[in-house]
Amino acid sequence: MWVSAGQPFSHTKISESPESASLADTSAEKATQGSDTDLEVEDPEKTFKGVTVTELYLEACRLMEVVPVSHFIQNLAEPYINLNHHGLGPKGVKAIAVALVSISTVTHLELEDNCILAEGAVYIAEMLRENSSLQKLNISNNHIGTAGAEAIASLLLDNLSYLYVLQLSGNDLGEEIAPYLAEALMENCLVKELDLSHNEFSEKGGQLLGQMLGSNTKLENLDLSWNYLRTKGTVALGTGLRGNDALKMLNLSWNGIGNDGAMALGEALKVNNVLVHLDISNNQIKNEGAKKLCRGLELHGKLSILKMAGNPLTVEGATELVMSIKKNPKSMMEEINISNVVVNETFIKLLDSVCNMRPELDVIHGAVEGYITEIPKQHPNPMKVIQNYLKERNLRLWDFFRNIDKDGNMKIPVAAFRTAMMQQSNIPLDREQIGELVRKLDRNQTGFVDYSHLKEEKPAQKPVEGEMKEEEEEEKEESQK
Question: Which pTM does this prediction carry?
Answer without folding.
Answer: 0.83
